[in-house]
Amino acid sequence: MTERSANRPLRILCLHGYRQNGSTFREKTGAFRKLLKKQVEFEFMTSPLEVPPLESADDKDGGSGWWFSRPDDYFKAQDDSDCVKGFEESLAAVEAAFKEKGPFDGILGFSQGGAMLGLICGLHQQGKLSYSFKFAIFVSAFKSRSLPHQHLYAEKITLPTLHVFGETDQVIEKPMSEEHLQYFLDPEILMHPGGHFIPATGAQKAVYVKFIEKMRELCD
């Protein structure tokens, strides 16, 4: 390893959750990014699908999503569905991000962005992507329950992965993130006592740093 490569930060593309966008997700990851500021350069993208605002919301910006589980532009992680509206458009946007702002060493996905990342990993495993990456980090992720996605779970994912989820997550409950683990060959797991967010205390820092250092050796 050269001195230059040893000092190069790893580049990670970040996929936000449902009703977020790249900017709001970046704001919510401040403490996490600070933990890894010397090791990682984060790039935040926004998915191309606009989510209709909630009727009760004062803010009429509904944020963005990666696909809809119903034709009327609605998504719920727990819904069994035949619908993946917008998924191909989102795949194309991630491909464009790699072309325009890449290369990236890894991808991080949160919530629906984590589910999207799992599907991207499936495509990567099956050799169906025009780009490549070396590792994936999942936070509050879950398996898609949309029928057209199921073939992407056919092969176990051999990429190194870190899976972060909270014991008290009320949005994506712990069993949903645990169910997702079975599709990965050797997943590393960081479970924390909190909810639907990226934990960033000293208790988690050692796990993140250890994983990133292992990925640095893999990428150089």
Shape: globular
Which range best describes the helical content: under 10%, 10-25%, 25-40%, 40-55%, 55-70% or over 70%?
Answer: 25-40%
Strand content: 15-25%
Instruction: Sketch the topology as an H/E string, one letter per element.
Output: HEHHEEEHEHEEHEH
| Helix-and-strand structural type | alpha/beta
Radius of gyration: 17 Å
- The mean pLDDT is 93
Annotation, overall tally of beta strands:
8
Distance between the termini: 7 Å
pLDDT < 50 stretches: none
Biggest β-sheet: strands ordered side by side in the sheet:
2-1-5-6-7-8
User: Main beta sheet, described?
Assistant: 6 strands, parallel
User: What is the number of helical segments per DSSP (H or I, 4+ residues)?
Assistant: 7
Map the helices and strands.
Blueprint: H1 3-7, E1 10-15, H2 22-28, H3 30-35, E2 40-45, E3 49-50, E4 64-65, H4 87-101, E5 106-110, H5 112-125, E6 135-139, E7 161-166, H6 174-180, E8 188-192, H7 202-219
Parallel strand pairs: 1-2, 1-5, 5-6, 6-7, 7-8
Antiparallel strand pairs: 3-4
Structural account:
This protein is an alpha/beta fold. 33% of the residues lie in helices and 17% in strands. The strands form two sheets. The chain has a six-stranded parallel beta sheet, with helices on both faces. The longest helix is centred in the last third of the chain and has 18 residues. The radius of gyration is 17 Å and the shape is globular. The model has no long low-confidence stretch (mean pLDDT 93).
